[in-house]
Amino acid sequence: AQKVTQAQTEISVVEKEDVTLDCVYETRDTTYYLFWYKQPPSGELVFLIRRNSFDEQNEISGRYSWNFQKSTSSFNFTITASQVVDSAVYFCALGRGFKTIFGAGTRLFVKA
Amino acid sequence: EPEVTQTPSHQVTQMGQEVILRCVPISNHLYFYWYRQILGQKVEFLVSFYNNEISEKSEIFDDQFSVERPDGSNFTLKIRSTKLEDSAMYFCASSGLAGGLGDTQYFGPGTRLTVL
């Protein structure tokens, strides 16, 4: 079965705190892709990152970083020095074949 | 930067009516998708479309749904006889050459469908 679990429903932090959003996936495929999308209050889905199953290197993009560990089937997302504009729902997703399977999302509140 | 566009942004319809949601994918993309998100819930895959035919569909995509690429630019989702539970945000997405190999899908802003 293909599944993405985001156990954290909501997280609330104060501006400038670091925050990590957890993502655990299940798949029997050897080739698959992992994604993070951001959904701000305006509702659109904004692509953040794509990772294939053969590339376990961690990635950093500005204040964002991602930790991919195949051994634990996890693809966690960390925001360093969070800002109010980071407030959104963040979705982790698993891509296989022609479809993308989304997790339930984590709602992040960043308070000033 | 090229983007996926969707019209209308909000559609209100009566139960039992047909609706057509429209999307213009990114121009050089070959794979097209529809997803839906019931308010406050996860994004769910409906259907993928390539080379003028459905390549994969979910159990949600039953006989009341159909997709079409009527011309070289538009991609439509038709719901034949809407039900209250079809109320949701519908997202169109497109991806480039790799498509089925997990290419990044770029999403449109969504159409909010309200069925009364």
Notable traits:
heterodimer, A: 112 residues, mainly beta, six-stranded mixed sheet, 12 strands, 0% helix, 55% strand, B: 116 residues, seven-stranded mixed sheet, four-stranded antiparallel sheet
Give a structural overview:
By secondary structure, chain A is mainly β. In chain A, 0% of the residues lie in helices and 55% in strands. In chain A, strands 2, 5, 6, 10, 11 and 12 form a 6-stranded mixed sheet that branches. Chain A has a 4-stranded antiparallel sheet with strand order 3-9-8-7, with no helix packed on it. The radius of gyration of chain A is 14 Å and the shape is globular. With 116 residues, chain B is mainly beta. In chain B, 0% of the residues lie in helices and 49% in strands. Chain B contains no helices and 11 strands. In chain B, strand 4 (31-37) and strand 5 form a beta hairpin. The interface between A and B is medium-sized, with 24 and 27 residues.
- Label the structural class of chain A: mainly beta
Biggest sheet overview of chain A: 6 strands, mixed
What overall form of chain A do the CA principal axes indicate? globular
* C-alpha end-to-end distance of chain A: 41 Å
> Biggest interface and its residues per chain?
A-B, 24 and 27 residues
Residue ranges of chain B: pLDDT <50 for 5 or more in a row?
none
**Cα-atom radius of gyration of chain A:** 14 Å
Mean pLDDT of chain A: 93
Radius of gyration of chain B: 13 Å
Summarize, please.
The complex is a heterodimer of chains A (112) and B (116). Chain A is mainly β and 112 residues long. Chain A has no helices and twelve strands.
